[in-house]
Write a structure and sequence with these properties.
Number of domains: 2
Number of strands: 15
CATH class of the largest domain: Alpha Beta
Bound molecules: iron/sulfur cluster
Strand order of the largest sheet: 8-7-6-5-4-3-10-9
CATH superfamily of the largest domain: Dihydropteroate synthase-like
Number of helices: 11
Distance between the termini: 31 Å
Shape: elongated
Largest sheet: 8 strands, parallel
Strand content: 15-25%
CATH topology of the largest domain: TIM Barrel
CATH architecture of the largest domain: Alpha-Beta Barrel
Length: 351
């Protein structure tokens, strides 16, 4: 049994987090919550891509009241992100939020009592979510690993003393190496499910690399029950990145494995990049769980193609298609995608 399986299981809306349940992907809307229609669309788009939970910011009363309408139009649990205010937390709970995130660095203990009581009454989960960048009402921040972990543990104790156990814990840093140390310490000291993430990890591949360093290291040690990849870009990209990461860690089975050649002077076809993108998008959009190899020539193309469910290797502006380790046809470049879709669909109809 790994560390993840030893964690408690908690209910968030219609899902269970922790224990031997799957590591769940979550993201956060980048639209003001009171902009209800756009928020609903973004949540449903992210769900389609693989998100099991979505979070929204609750900045004011309008955002808290918008929860009711949003909840009617989505099917995954909704989390409200609340800082400083107990009033907004209470309003969000009354309007149907499934879980709230509070930050003990900026929300003093005395404000937590009313939130705890209301969350217990409505069966709402709470994430104690600390962040290295957060400041206290007096403008101080906590940056040491011990300081952050001790505050999280002190807050857990406070919740338990007030008869609240439906908790998820997170402590995020923008440094992947510090994130690893923080969560290793946290996992030794609590068995509540852990939400892991490298916060404010950056833009594009900078953020993807930082998140992958931090999260994959922890996940391989059995630490982490739900993940968020925090990128400067949109939540859809966060979900796709999280899904690809979990898949390569054997933690997200329903996803294609794509092998593609890095291209070199031997490449025998044009636009290999474009072809790989098109095939990847098709397999991802349709959640097709097969292994496919797209190779530019026969040097490694034959071996990789034979090891995949379907493989293609470039050969003088044509592609050789392999299926079940055998060559089944040779097609022109301009016809490759259509031929490939036919073969993929034949394959999955037999699965
Ligand atoms: S598969 Fe062929 S084209 Fe692609 S990198 Fe290898 S040798 Fe080069």
């Amino acid at each position: 049994m790994n560390l993840r399986e030893k964690t408690k299981q908690i209910k968030i809306g219609n899902i269970t987090l922790g224990g031997d349940n799957n590591v769940l992907i979550q993201s956060m809307c980048d639209i003001k919550t009171s902009n209800v229609k756009k928020v609903i669309k973004e949540i449903n788009d992210c769900e389609k891509l693989g998100a099991s939970l979505m979070r929204v910011s609750i900045l004011d009363k309008k955002d808290a009241l918008a929860i009711k309408e949003i909840k009617k139009n989505i099917s995954i649990p909704l989390i409200g992100d609340i800082h400083y205010s107990d009033e907004l937390a209470l309003l969000a709970i009354e309007n149907g939020i499934d879980k709230i995130r509070i930050n003990p660095i900026n929300t003093p203990m005395d404000k937590l009592i009313s939130i705890i009581n209301k969350a217990n009454q409505y069966n709402v989960a709470i994430r104690i979510g600390l962040n290295e960048g957060s400041t206290t009402p007096e403008g101080k921040n906590i940056t040491s690993i011990n300081g952050l972990v001790n505050l999280a543990l002190k807050t857990i104790k406070f919740f338990e003393e007030n008869n609240f156990f439906n908790l998820v814990i997170s402590i995020k840093s923008s440094s992947p190496l510090k994130t690893i140390k923080i969560y290793e310490k946290l996992a030794k000291n609590t068995n509540y499910p852990l939400h892991i993430g490298v916060t404010e990890s950056g833009f594009d591949d900078i953020g993807i690399i930082r998140s992958t360093i931090g999260l994959s290291n922890l996940l391989l040690k059995g630490i982490g029950n739900t993940i968020r990849v925090s990128l400067t870009q949109n939540p859809q990209l966060e979900v796709i990145t999280a899904k690809r990461m979990l898949h390569d860690l054997n933690l997200y089975p329903n996803y294609p494995t794509i092998i593609s050649c890095p291209t070199c002077g031997r490449c025998k076809v044009n636009n290999l990049n474009e072809i790989v993108n098109k095939i990847t998008a098709y397999l991802e959009e349709n959640n097709i769980n097969i292994k496919i190899a797209v190779m530019g020539c026969i040097v490694n193309g034959i071996g990789e193609s034979k090891n995949a469910d379907i493989g293609i290797a470039g050969a003088n502006h044509k592609f050789i298609i392999f299926k079940n380790r055998k060559i089944i046809k040779t097609v022109e470049e301009n016809n490759l995608f259509n031929e490939l879709v036919i073969e993929i669909n034949k394959l999955i109809s037999k699965q």
